[in-house]
Amino acid sequence: GGYSYATGHGYSTLAVTPTGTYHVYYQVDKWDIGPLGGLYRPKYFSGGIAVHGSYSVPPQPASHGCVRISLAAMDWLWKSPYIPMGTRVVVYQ
Questions:
Q1: Residue 7: pLDDT band by 50, 70, 90 thresholds?
Q2: Architecture of the domain whose range is 18-91
Q3: Rg (Cα) of the chain, in Å, rounded?
């Protein structure tokens, strides 16, 4: 499954968070601006896929594969000891 979205190039694509077991390998303690927009305090676990804060967290899949959570939840995760570098991340369907 996934969410189909229109691209600026005139075609649709499917946004899917890749299933599997990963580890947090890189994190940025501020807004990280990339080609698809801003990610708040992201913790990357697969290429450009991250758990990150967002102003918008809709109830249905709507990202380019990332795991979006509220800004407050992301702040809490950074203050807590729960997701340090190297933390295992398991994505399943």
A1: very low
A2: Beta Barrel (2.40)
A3: 13
